[in-house]
Each structure stands twice: as C-alpha cells, then as structure tokens.
Design goal:
Strand content: 15-25%
Order of helices and strands: HEEEEEHHHHHHHEHHHEHHEEEEEEEEE
Shape: elongated
Radius of gyration: 31 Å
Distance between the termini: 108 Å
Number of domains: 2
Number of strands: 16
Largest sheet: 5 strands, antiparallel
Helix content: 40-55%
Length: about 450
C-alpha cells in the first residue's frame, strides 16, 4: 500500500489536531541571552505600567488618562481634549511607527512589548512552571495534584485582579483608586462591575485562550503579511546552512525549537503568521549548536534576502519612505506642542444674520464667541478688539471667568460707526488677555452696507 505523500503546507493551525480538537501547548522554558534580554525588557515595561500613574513630575502625574475631566497627562505634560491637532498627530505617529517597525523588524513588537505576551510569558507561564515543572528539560514533568492546580488558578486570578486595578489607576490615579476602595459598593458599583468583568475576561484569556490571542484573534499577525517583504528582518531559519537535516546540514532535527515556541510552530517551515519573534527558538538552537561544536546562528534575526545572499537588508525604498513620513510627523508634533496656546477661541458669525442698523449712525454684527481654557487653574479673560481698535462690543459676561478645562459660549455684538466703515467686508481681530498678557487672537469679518 502506498504511503500518503507528506504535505508541504499547513491547512490548519498547529494548535488543532486532525479531529478539530485543541492541542494544548506545553512550552519548555527558554534559556539563553535572548530570553534574558526579553526578561529585562518585560520587567521594565511592567514597572512602567505599575509606576507611571503613581510617579509625579512637577506635581503632575507622569501618565494619567483623566477621561472624566477630558485631560490627559502624558509624560508629565498635560493635553486637553480640545487639542485635537496634537492628538491626531500623536495617533498618526503611532500608526506610522508601528508600520515602519513592522516593515523593518517584522513582528518584533509582539514578542517583546505586546502586553499579552509580556503577561503570558513573564508572569502566567512562570506561575505554570512552578506547578507543572519545565516540561521535560532533562527530567520528567510534574503532575500536580488537583489542589495544586486550584492554587495555580487562584494565583492567576489574584494576579489578574491586581493588574486590573493598576489599569483602572491609569484613569483615576492612586488617590482616586483608594477612594473607590474605601467607598461603599453602591457609590461606585459601575467601577466595581467593570473591574470584576475585566478580571474574569482576562483570567479566561490567560487560563484558557492563551496563545490563541496571537494565532486566532490578533489582526497584527495577518497585517504583517501585507507589510513584510524579502528584506524585512524576522526570526529566520538558515535553510542553506541547515539542510539537508542530519546529513550534510547543521540542523540535527532535535525539535528543540518547536518545544520552546509559545505558539507551537516549527520555524524551519519559514515565516508564519503565528511567529511573534520571541527568539525562544534562537536560544534553544544556540544551545544545541554549542553542544555540537558548531557555529551559533542557525536560527537568528535575519531576512530571507540576507539568508539567500548574505547581504544586509535594512536599506530599502519603503524603509526610507516610512522614515521620511515619520520624521515629518515628529516635526509637526513638536511644532504643534510648542505652538500650543493657553486658550482656544473662535469668533463666528451668527448663522442666518447680516448686519443690523443699531442707530442712524451705527452698524452692528452678531457673532458666536467660544473660549476654552486649555490650562490648569482659573483664568479671568479680558477681551479687546485689536482691529478695528475704535469699535464697541457687548457681551453678557465680561471679563470671562474660566475654570480649569472650562469653556464659555456666548453671543457677542460688535458695533461700528458708519463713518469708520470703508468696505462692505472688513476684517476684525479679537484679542484675549489674562493679567495684561495676550494669550490668543481670533479673526472674523464685519459686514456692512456699501459705503456712500
């Protein structure tokens, strides 16, 4: 009877067997310089996540997303919801940076900085090792009792609850979170409900879904298929050196690279959407190469272009193009932040109105005036028309009193003598002052009858 020819492609994820059932991945803990580096990076990111809303710079939180009051403390600087230009540029910079990083370094973000990977591999996976052992690194794996498994899941839940509270602290600050914990349930039942729902969802993710987030749900792995090319640097297997296995090639087909892969793939089959560039297979392969007294780097950071030709692959037209766009956006961001004003004002003509003859020798126009305080602290805003400087205006509230992040919306009536009007459409400019200092100007047009 003829044997079935081995397939050279996958028709399903490696975590699903022939019957469609899930195959649980029991990952051996990596060991090596890349795993150590990844541990250092993850430790720094976890400390940043925990301490960023606690640390203060100049009395302001280092990071705080105060959605209720519509202000955001980013790296010690305060940005309000009215700063739409700055927020738009920040989002554009983030998108272009992610795209540029993916084009050059592949899915490096997923393996090193993605919150799911950091939590899964550096916290939950290590808790698992305490109870299940290291999955046969030279010894039999532990078979924990039901009590030990229950303790493991209790630890999972407590860790998840802790980080859920840290996440909430990014929106409330440490004092706000403490107030919530000290208050009765009925006063903050929405927050408590969200807290326990988020904790339950993420407990389910880290206890059951696990690598499925990367292989099934996350769109980034599929997006990289559009962004990567032959010169993108990824975790790659040097097939020219490794094949044919166990014959002339350096690969001894030990399967170590598969046993440490958190998504269960075989990197020797080439770049795959499940690969998160975590470098675990690099460390494992280097250990085997040292034992075999062969050069390290059979699996390494490289592009298919460099594997094939032995040449560097960082330089490409797309890299330069994305870098140019990113540089322009960063310059625009610096300009927007440096040119940010303390108040934002707009003077717009009242819809559906023309000029009005206030008296026999006076013409008036009606405007909608909106002023927003984009700074911390109270502001007492005084108005003065810079052009024309001999006009009179009426406003229901003047000076305008603005609290922190406060706004004013009112009707302003501007009057001019007919003898001063030289044209049908004359520009007007309004200045906003605080303590005698000009903060902002806004312009509009004054409409009048045709001068005689």
């Amino acid at each position: 009877m003829a044997t079935q020819k081995q397939k050279t492609f996958r028709e399903r994820p490696d975590t699903i067997d022939d019957q469609g059932n899930r195959k649980w991945i029991k990952v051996r803990q990596p060991k090596g310089k890349w795993y150590t580096r990844r541990t250092v990076v993850a430790s720094f990111l976890l400390l940043f996540f925990i301490l960023a809303p606690i640390i203060k710079i100049g009395g302001k939180p280092f990071m705080l997303l105060d959605v209720v009051n519509r202000k955001f403390h980013l790296f010690g600087a305060t940005v309000y919801s009215q700063d739409t230009d700055i927020m738009a540029i920040v989002m554009a910079v983030t998108v272009i940076f992610v795209v540029l990083f993916t084009v050059v370094f592949g899915r490096f973000w997923c393996g090193w900085a993605c919150p799911h990977t950091v939590f899964m591999e550096m916290i939950y996976r290590r808790i698992e090792y305490l109870f299940h052992g290291n999955y046969q690194r030279g010894r039999r794996a532990k078979v924990p009792s039901r009590f030990a498994v229950a303790i493991k899941y209790v630890l999972y839940f407590l860790v998840t609850l802790f980080f859920t509270n840290v996440f909430i602290m990014w929106f409330t600050g440490p004092k706000g979170l403490l107030i919530i914990w000290k208050s009765p349930f009925h006063e903050y039942w929405q927050v408590y409900t969200a807290m326990f729902v988020v904790t339950a969802v993420y407990f389910w993710i880290y206890a059951y879904i696990r690598e499925g987030v990367c292989t099934l749900f996350c769109p980034y792995g599929r997006m990289q298929g559009v962004l990567l090319d032959a010169k993108s640097i990824t975790v790659a297997y040097d097939y020219k050196r490794g094949e044919p296995r166990r014959i002339k090639g350096d690969c001894v087909d030990c399967g170590g690279c598969v046993s440490v892969c958190p998504t269960g793939i075989d990197i020797r089959n080439g770049t795959q959407l499940e690969c998160v560039n975590c470098t675990a297979c690099i460390d494992e392969c280097n250990i085997v190469m040292r034992k075999m007294k062969k050069p390290e780097g059979l699996i390494r950071f490289a592009s298919s272009y460099s594997v094939e030709t032995g040449k560097s692959s960082i330089k490409s037209l797309r890299t330069y193009a994305y870098s140019g766009v990113l540089f322009i956006l960063l310059v625009a961001l610096v300009v927007a932040i440096s040119g940010r004003t303390a108040v934002d004002a707009s003077l717009l003509r009242m819809p559906g109105t023309m000029y009005q003859e206030a008296s026999a020798d006076t013409i008036s126009n009606i405007y909608q005036l909106k002023v927003v305080n984009k700074t911390e602290g109270f502001k007492n805003i005084e108005l003065k028309f810079l052009r024309p400087n001999n006009s009179a205006f009426f406003l229901s509230e003047h000076p305008i009193k603005l609290n922190e992040n406060g706004s004013f919306d009112g009707v302003l009536i501007l009057k001019q003598a007919k003898s001063d009007i030289k044209t049908k459409n004359a520009p007007v400019e309004l200045g906003l002052y605080w303590d005698g200092k000009l903060l902002e100007t806004t312009a509009a047009t004054f409409i009048a009858p045709k001068p005689e």
